[in-house]
Amino acid sequence: MNQLAERLAVALDLHQAGHMAEAERRYQAILKESPDHADALHYLGVLLHRRGDNERDAQLLDRALSLVPDDTACWSSRGLVAGAIGDLPYSVRCYEQALSIDPAFANARNSLGTALQKGAACDQLSQLGCALKPHDLTNNIHDFADTAALIKRLDLVITVNTSVAHLAGALDKPVWVFLPANDDWRRMLDRDDRPRYSGMRCSSRPRSATGLSLWRGRKRL
């Protein structure tokens, strides 16, 4: 490992441990010596995003991507920043770019699902013909940490099969998941609970006049 790589590893360890000021100082020192160090640009951008400095973050990530255009993690980070700024179309394009490079990159796939829900699907709530008028908090959600914090304050999560369902299940929050009628057999079509998540209940077909299935614990209403 060369000297710059060692210094970057130390900065990243500090970053992950929550010592943001020292990590930022070390990233900046690396970039002063090597302005085109793509990883330092990327990680400094991630740090600035957590601090809310998204405009500067976007500039750093764009610079990093000009140097390493096939970096899936950097594209995913750029999508997160675009979403935080409010540019959802570009956020979606960034996640799609990451997935075109690596279709198995889970972070980009999960973030893409969240971005799409905050985009066109969320806009439907403002349409005049929409009878349901929930309290929309999505403008306060910028990443999965924000999503988790919101979920923890809820009594129940109702969702389709997205990353939000898995996050709620992992947090042991009661969650109802609506699946398509022709859902994959590997999701255990003969039962509505899920062994992985004790609080999750799923439905892949309508069971009432409204087309919804409701549960209280393991007992259907």
Automatic annotation (TrEMBL):
Leader sequence segment: none
Key word Nucleus present: no
Keywords, comma-separated and alphabetical: TPR repeat
Keyword match Membrane: no
Alphabetical list of InterPro entries matching this protein: TMTC_O-mannosyl-trnsfr, TPR-like_helical_dom_sf, TPR_rpt
PROSITE patterns: TPR
Superkingdom assignment: Bacteria
Each TPR repeat, start to end: 38-71, 72-105
Protein name (record): Tetratricopeptide (TPR) repeat protein
